[in-house]
Every structure is written in C-alpha cells, then in structure tokens.
Amino acid sequence: MQCKNFEWYLKNIYPEAPLPYDYKSLGAIANQGTRLCLDTMGKKDGPVGIQTCHGSGGNQAWSLTGRGEIRSDDLCLSSSSLDNLVRLERCNVASSNTKHLFKYDNENKQLIHVKTRYCVTASDGKEVVVRPCNFSPDQTWALEGYMP
Q: GO terms for biological process (predicted)?
C-alpha cells in the first residue's frame, strides 16, 4: 500500500481547505494553570474565549502555522498594544500586520506574541491577554499535536 500523508492530501487534493498544510500543531490549546482551552465561542471577531476543554474540535480546534499564525479556519489570533486582549480576526485582514504572529516556546510552554514579546495569558480564567512573560502557570500552554 502506498498511502500519501495528510500534508500531501491538503496540497494536492484539497488545496482550498481552510486548514494550512504547514502547521506545527493541530488541535486544542489548553492553559496549564486553569485547565481551560482557547475557544472561538462561535464568533468571527472580538476577544477569544477560554472555556472548559471538551475534546471535540469545533470552536476549540486551532493550528499553529509555520509562519506563526494561530488559526481556527479563516480566523487568526491577534493582539495590539492598545488593550493587550487576544482577539479573533480574519486572517486575510491580519496578514498585512505582525500583530497576529506568535511563536511557541516548547521548552517553557509559552505562546509569545512576536510584536510585543509578551506571553499569552489566561487572565483570571475569564479573558485571554498578552502580558510580560513571568513563567506563571497562567502563561503555560499545551498545544495538541505540537511538532517542533
């Protein structure tokens, strides 16, 4: 049997898929301090939510792309220095600006906003913000299926 991998399928059979084929992780993004997961809350813009992890994908399915986008279909996480909230934005709108780029520090389990160098933080388990990195549990994240 000469089966092709999933990346081959996305590139050759379904290139219009909203899922990027250059992903580094695919699945839920869980905060280690709160044990809650990032969630779109069914919205197309506005602040990203944080909810009990349900393991069913959907609103909690994210991909970290090789470029540094954290995507849910055609939505990207972004942040600006105005209020430090982590928001959902259409990726084609966000792509002209570095406010939607993140890197994952696998050793420290931190999601770092490239533009501000702040860490994604689960603030009081209610909202998601970027704050100066301090290695606290509310700044540590597990990315399902992460591949360095």
A: protein O-linked glycosylation
